[in-house]
Inverse folding.
DNA sequence: GTGAAAGCGCTAACAA
DNA sequence: TTGTTAGCGCTTTCAC
């Protein structure tokens, strides 16, 4: 394409600052990076020049000079479900493209809902070879402590999908799960319209903060806005499709008038398989989580009425951007990093 | 934060290629940039080295050396509505941050729904000072032609919010508006549940492709899935709150049993003002477009039942990323650039 | 046709 | 405490 070289009012560079402040490049660099060993008076001189010239640092040039390489690690639960596969796919995809931006991304998995295994994995991270870690897992004291250690060694940490607010993680990357549960409840109530009856909630594990939060939000709105609907105790599926498929028949057999099902965690495959083989007398309104090939198909053929989702690609990209920003001590754009609570109906499925 | 300098299997550079191919840096550069004046046999030698080493070019370094500056222009309709304000805000925000990435972003406005004015504005673009243009406006032959001229001069062009597929624009950045209309219809139908009656559609202009597409999708799903609801002819509000407020009373007075309103374009302020002052005997289900302070409030107090939206920040960022990718002839990530059809209910409003 | 060398904006040894 | 200098990966004169 076209040319487009510099021409306009030139952007000031470190050289300009050095000239104006009557110091050397090295000193400018020290001030810019807040390195010690510069007299206060000199710092002020330089800062004044920076302000006067309206200098903005060229990060690309800085990174080039530094020879900086970012090394990030994702630690994910080893569950056999589509959402995790999606996340792993996106990590692999992004890893390929980010190489050209001097960023190496890898991931490991640890047994799901196993705080000790997770804590050990976090503790086992080689802090000399890792700049940032993204953790998707339960919130327990051991996990919290291992995160503290990581942070103490200068590794940036983000919690992914399920927050660990009690820890010293730098940020949480994921949706507001209470709001997600509330959203599910609102859809459930409105779609059910005047119908009354029981609503079954499938959850993953009581250990998972995201699952608990969804349930919390769901119950709250159901109780407030739709008192004619009765929400049953949760069925814990541990995000495992096979387990869910085994548990469901019994539960459904012992409950009458199930007019709605809120599948609030992963493992939709089990729910779908059960519904397709067993069949129910009358199809309940079903709201599920996470847009995956299976839930997509279920939405398409009318088995699911709505899917609440979070964009796996966005999660991964956001985690990486944030880990980088933390390390570089560079500002982040909150609007860009906010993970939205996506609602998918049959008609707004992405191509 | 921590160190993190290079250490692992080094990424090959132009120097490595030069060494392996036994040529000079300049020759490697000529081949890399497909510049003429290199013997075929030499080109092959270099390309083999590139392939053997698995070389990937460091764009940041390349741009630094080139002194490249990207200059982008947004051309927007001059309408007095919140959605446009949002877009302008995001352009300003992004412009600030992108300066450090050698990217200058500006924007101008032209009279809305005025194809000639738009075509003139596009033709008036200084192609020697502009690398990319994002156009938000109607699709007409004159607009199409002016876009062709721009492209012929090596300027990359994206259509924004409303596509101009007949033109030679490089890409469209925005939602699938047919799908958006279908989504609105599905929500309308399900929220109205067993109720029958008339549904009023507020649109912007017959000139606007996005508005036409939304109407198309809406009608299709309403007719197919909710035949007990009768969709009325569109009311053209030209995205102008004041005009909408003036037109509404008459229309509503002459139609009975309006059980739903689909506000498919911009200018919600007018609709809201009318409803709040006039008040209706029974509140219809209202589905509107674009999440803005006003529609947000309307969702919060129950006036609106759902809002279909597209993220203005995402639109702007995506347009810029794509214009850059086109100029650099660099790949884009379709998943990241896809603008989602967001559905907002009272419960999933962003903070 | 090809190469040597300077330089983009910034950082980091090493000297002074 | 401050400055000199080389160099990151790539492009670009200007010679040969």
């Amino acid at each position: 394409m076209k040319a487009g070289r510099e021409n306009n009012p030139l952007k000031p560079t470190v050289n300009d600052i050095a000239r104006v402040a009557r110091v050397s490049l090295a000193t400018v660099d020290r001030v810019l990076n807040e390195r010690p060993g510069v007299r206060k008076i000199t710092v002020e001189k330089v800062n004044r020049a920076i302000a006067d010239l309206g200098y903005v640092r060229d990060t690309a040039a800085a990174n080039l000079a530094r020879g900086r390489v970012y090394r990030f690690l994702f630690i994910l639960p080893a569950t056999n479900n589509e959402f995790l596969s999606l996340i792993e796919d996106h990590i692999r995809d992004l890893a390929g493209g980010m190489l050209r931006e001097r960023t190496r991304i890898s991931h490991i998995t640890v047994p799901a809902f196993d705080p000790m295994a997770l804590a050990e994995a976090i503790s086992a991270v080689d802090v000399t070879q890792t700049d940032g870690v993204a953790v998707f897992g339960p919130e327990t004291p051991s996990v919290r402590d291992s995160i503290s250690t990581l942070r103490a060694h200068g590794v940036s940490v983000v919690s992914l999908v399920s927050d660990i607010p009690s820890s010293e993680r730098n940020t949480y990357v994921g949706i507001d799960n209470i709001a997600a549960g509330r959203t599910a409840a609102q859809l459930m109530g409105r779609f059910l319209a005047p119908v009354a009856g029981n609503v079954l909630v499938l959850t993953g594990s009581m250990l998972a903060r995201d699952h608990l939060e969804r349930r919390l939000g769901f119950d709250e709105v159901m109780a407030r806005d739709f008192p004619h609907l009765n929400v049953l105790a949760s069925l814990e599926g541990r995000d495992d499709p096979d387990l869910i498929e085994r548990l469901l028949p019994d539960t459904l057999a012992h409950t009458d008038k199930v007019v709605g099902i809120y599948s609030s965690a992963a493992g939709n495959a089990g729910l779908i398989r059960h519904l397709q083989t067993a069949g129910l007398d009358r199809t309940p309104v079903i709201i599920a989580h996470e847009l995956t090939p299976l839930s997509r198909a279920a939405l398409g053929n009318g088995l699911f009425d709505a899917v609440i989702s979070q964009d796996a690609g966005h999660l991964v990209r956001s985690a990486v951007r944030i880990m980088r920003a933390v390390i570089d001590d560079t500002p982040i754009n909150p609007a860009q990093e906010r993970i939205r609570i996506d609602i998918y109906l049959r008609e707004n499925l992405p191509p």
